Amino acid sequence: MLEILYQDQYIIAINKPSGLLVHKSFYARDAKVYAIQELRNQIGQHVYPIHRLDRKTSGVLLFALDTAVLKIMNDRFATREVEKKYLAILRGWSPQEQTIDYDLTNDDNITQNAITYFHRLQNAEIELKLNNKPTSRYCLVEAIPETGRMHQLRKHFKHIFHPILGSRPHGCNKQNKLWLENFELKGMMLHAHQLIFNHPINNQQLILNAKVNEEFSKVGTILRLDLSKYQ
Question: Whole-angstrom Cα distance, residue 85 to residue 154?
């Protein structure tokens, strides 16, 4: 059963679990279950995804309940009238805040402008040895992508040498192996925790929040991060 965050006659939003594809994908032909079919079966009507989340990314995922609303919301995403906020746990201590303006090349070999703003929320350091260092450092950040390129946050954080913990690819293989061996971490520490937009029909502002999942909470406990406002 998918967790429904908001529902009316025009739109519906869920807290997508990590590991669940939004729809069929050439890149994950092994998958048999998709958010579209699960939500359709759960509420008994067709749903139309307005935006996408990576398979390993959890959090707020918005659907339209008819094609007219889908067009309205697609236009608002295209004109950047929707604000998406993500939580991520990164390797190392990132800058306090930064705007990453770094072009990305998609699978069709087309280079696109990509911009991400983020600010650091908390630092962490634990006794976890790697490369002859007795401790390892991490941080919790909130990221707000201004553009919506494929794997944008993963690629941008890797670009500034603070990759997202658990990201494969576009992560740190040594850190991922370390966490898999020590803590059985298989997920990625990226969560779409908030979506802010105006309703497509009445134009009233909506702020939708999604709680972090169990694995994100577990990593937060290991790192002694305060995630109470996100749980």
Answer: 14
**Beta pairing partners, 145:** 116
Q: What is the pLDDT of residue 115?
A: 97
Residue 54 among the catalytic residues:
yes
Alpha-carbon distance of 169 to 97, in angstroms, equals 24
Identify the active-site residue in 54, 101, 107, 108.
Answer: 54
pLDDT in tens, 7-47: 999 999 999 999 999 876 555 566 578 899 999 999 999 99
Is the pTM of the predicted complex or chain greater than 0.70?
Answer: yes
SS3 77: helix
Give the residue carrying structure tokens 């090349």.
Answer: 105
CA distances (Å), origin 37, targets 22, 32, 152: 9, 10, 26
